[in-house]
Write a structure and sequence with these properties.
heterodimer; A: 275 residues; Immunoglobulin-like; 3 domains; 2 helices; 26% strand; elongated; B: 497 residues; mainly alpha; Cytochrome C Oxidase, Chain A; two-stranded antiparallel sheet
Chain lengths: 275, 497
């Protein structure tokens, strides 16, 4: 190899021979490259990004145990000693994670306070509705306990009104009916939205609606925003991402019902109620 | 040839840069012709798979910007900067060679993979869907090219500021030196952002991070900010060396001193500063708030006076001069005309209301191609013709050179001015099919014919270069263009190391 010199004038006149050699080097390089591109064209373009493996690995986690609401009635006339008081009474079960609402149908105020009576040292520790005025409902009370716990409670005003509730596995409870999931990504038009759709339930089931998306949605009866009876039959109200609500089908006749999301009216679904 | 491959001398490296960039220009241009041929008629003809089309235009864009514009400017800089600052070589010749040899590696990665996510590599697509290993190859290819640019920029800055001949004040150096200096500083300021964004893109693809992954709480818009913070200034990094070349050529061929050296320097520095004030004008449609949009609109308009300073300077220099319209001068003046169109389109496009109509339409394609093809490539082609005797010691064929110019000028105008109108008619960019209505078909066909004309011009140019380098007439090295002045004074005191 001869070292070429850069003297006073760096210009070296190129000969056609040198030029041809240069072109050959470039052409051979390009030809090799082209051969690789042509033969490997699809291979270089076949792997999904590794991040997708993270997403497709385990299936998306099932919705958390139905955080629905169990209702217990305080019957009219419960204030009279010996009368039936709470309904359901001693055999009330609350699915794990559910909140409990006591509805006072009597004409005097009542409470539901944990404990066996006013002389119980731990009275009101686990839960206490406070005073529920006549005709009103208590707040949604969170029950603090484990599956299998049986918690006695009573009315602070009428201590002879006693009852108890038992915490059971989430899916066994009376209040944990079928779950309607609003899927992740529902807000994008064309994406799958409600699951299952159509959903078949037996009249009287309490449907738990779970919003698995990260933006708010609703489940509102009706065919769309122009339906004059929108929300007349049932309405979940606005559910933020991760929230749940319940729809009681007890008052619905056996037929098919349309519902939709009032925020994204292209999200529609059907609820089939059977006898 | 072999001895050049292992050389560290600045003219050898410069020649390698120029050869590589011309090869990239030709093969990238071939892809452009494939794209235009596909669009000649609506429906799928030669490319039946949209993904293949995406891969082709992604590679075309990446190649033209990073393997044609940047290396060519670096090549000419390598040739001329040491001569202009009267030093024997670049400051660090071995670093210079390393910076060059990184480019073929990056080039191989970009070309062999042919990724499909456009040269923006916009998330979330580039993270969640873009198939590998093409995408990874693109990311690492760009990483290597970016590193090469940074090393080259450091070398230029040190050569200009530290190795300059002590008797030569900075304010007496050529404006091309100023252009290279400003460009190199801009590279150092702008590039780290994108370098970081590339790493983030890669780790997002691996799933170990979620910077831009909406599923993991990341923000794809953040990528756009990081990307455009680098690549809006990068537009000027492409353009400023070309403007510097125009400053070299215009006074020589107008045979008249430069109208105002001072305003040229001022405009370079101004342009470099305002280049960093306009990046988000690429992102009006992302839902920025009004104050931000207004800020970037004003920032964009601030580039207009700086560009106009250059244009007025050129016109004033040519005014009353004895202009010799040889090939180099024709290219520069043609580029000036196209620069004017591009600038005019850019000014109206920086207005938000119009931008919402033209965003991601063919208007944008026409606009930036008028810059990169019109101004920058034309100045580059002018410069390569002008440097031809210096590089080869021979003269190219002037008649063929002029035919080349007219083919390219007519072709480029046909393609890219038509594409502005296509955009206003609503044709989105990056599509391989379009609605078969008469205006769209006619305009696409005009553009395709224009592309064929430009392509034949480029092929003729290469033939002229190759033939003349081997068999051209030996040039008169004192004054090859008969301009009545010294060509390049490359007699230096220091012997070759």
């Amino acid at each position: 190899m001869t070292e070429h010199e850069h003297g006073e004038e760096p210009v070296v006149l190129t000969s056609p021979g040198r030029m041809a050699r240069g072109i050959i080097i470039v052409a051979v390089t390009l030809a090799i490259g082209a051969a690789v591109v042509v033969t490997q064209f699809e291979n270089f373009f076949s792997n999904a990004p590794p991040v997708t493996r993270l997403q497709t690995g385990p299936p998306p986690p099932p919705p958390p145990p139905a955080a629905g609401v169990t209702t217990i009635a305080i019957l009219a006339g419960a204030a009279g000693q010996g009368n039936p008081d709470y309904d359901p009474d001693d055999d009330a079960t609350v699915p794990m994670g559910n909140k409990v609402v006591w509805i006072n149908h009597d004409n005097v105020p009542h409470t539901a306070t944990s404990g066996t009576g006013t002389d119980d040292q731990d009275s009101g520790v686990l839960f206490d509705t406070g005073i529920v005025n006549d005709g009103e409902s208590s707040d949604e009370i969170e029950i603090d306990g484990e599956v299998g716990d049986t918690i006695p409670y009573y009315c602070f005003i009428h201590p002879y009104m006693t009852s108890q509730l038992t915490i059971v596995e989430a899916e066994e409870g009376a209040g944990s009916g079928p779950t309607l999931t609003i899927l992740l990504g529902s807000s994008v038009q064309g994406n799958p939205d409600y699951n299952p759709d159509p959903m078949t339930v037996t009249a009287g089931d309490v449907v738990t609606v779970f919003n698995a998306d990260n933006i708010p949605h609703t489940v509102t009866s009706g065919t769309g925003p122009s339906d004059p009876d929108t929300g007349a039959l049932f309405d979940s109200n606005i559910l933020n991402g991760g929230d749940t609500a319940t729809i009681n089908t007890a008052g619905l006749g056996a037929r098919e019902y349309d519902y939709y999301c009032i925020i994204h009216s292209y999200m529609t679904g059907k609820l089939q109620v059977t006898e | 040839m072999w001895e050049i491959l292992f050389s560290t001398h600045h003219t050898d490296i410069g020649l390698l840069y120029i050869i590589l960039s011309l090869v990239a220009f030709m093969i990238g241009g071939a892809l452009a012709l494939v794209i235009r041929t596909e669009l000649f008629l609506p429906g799928a003809q030669i490319i039946t798979d949209p993904n293949t089309f995406h891969r082709i235009f992604t590679t075309h864009g990446t190649n033209m910007l990073f393997l044609w514009l940047l290396p060519f400017a670096a090549g000419v800089g390598n040739y001329l900067i040491p001569i202009m600052v009267k030093y024997k070589d670049m400051a660090w010749p071995k670093l210079n060679a390393v910076a060059f040899w990184m480019i073929p590696v990056g080039m191989a990665l970009v070309w062999l993979g042919m990724a499909d996510f456009t040269w923006y590599a916009t998330p979330p697509y580039s993270i969640l869907r873009a198939p590998g290993p093409a995408a990874e190859m693109w990311i690492f290819g760009l990483k290597i090219l970016g590193l090469s640019s940074i090393l080259g920029a450091i070398n230029f800055i040190v050569t200009i500021l530290k190795m300059k001949h002590p008797d030569l004040p900075l304010m007496k150096t050529s404006l091309f030196v100023w252009g290279t200096l400003v460009t190199s500083i801009m590279i150092l300021v702008a590039l780290p952002t994108f370098t970081a964004a590339l790493i983030m893109l890669f780790t997002d693809r691996l799933g170990v991070s979620g910077f831009f992954n909406p599923n993991m709480g990341g923000d794809p818009i953040a990528y756009q900010h990081l990307f455009w913070f680098t690549f809006h200034p990068e537009v000027y990094i492409f353009a400023i060396p070309a403007i510097g070349m125009a400053y070299e050529l215009i006074p020589r061929f107008a045979r008249k001193p430069l109208f105002s050296y001072q305003s040229g320097v001022t405009a370079f520095v101004l342009l470099a500063i305002v280049a960093f004030a306009s990046w988000a004008h690429h992102m009006y449609a992302t839902g920025m708030d009004f104050t931000m949009k207004t800020t970037f609109m004003v920032g964009t308009l601030a580039a207009v006076p700086a560009s106009a300073l250059h244009v007025f300077n050129w016109i004033a220099t040519m005014w009353g001069g004895r202009i010799k319209f040889s090939t180099p001068m024709s290219f520069v003046v043609g580029g000036l005309v196209l620069f004017f169109y591009a600038g005019a389109g850019g000014v109206v496009n920086s207005m938000m209301p119009l931008d919402f109509l033209t965003h991601d339409s063919y208007w944008v394609v026409g606009h930036f191609h008028l810059f990169v093809m019109g101004l920058i490539t034309f100045a580059f082609l002018g410069m390569i013709h002008y440097l031809f005797p210096l590089i080869t010691g021979r003269m190219y064929n002037e008649r063929v050179g002029m035919i080349t110019f007219w083919l390219l000028f007519v072709g480029v105008s046909m393609v890219f001015l038509t594409q502005h109108v296509l955009g206003l008619y609503g044709q989105p960019r990056r599509v391989f099919d379009y609605v078969p209505v008469e205006p769209l078909i006619i305009m696409n066909q005009i553009a395709t014919v224009g592309a064929m004309i430009s392509g034949s011009g480029a092929a003729l140019f290469m033939a002229n270069m190759i033939y003349s380098a081997g068999k051209g007439k030996p040039a008169d090295m004192r004054d090859p263009f008969k301009l009545g002045e010294q060509y390049f004074d490359y007699t230096r005191k220091e012997p070759h190391h």
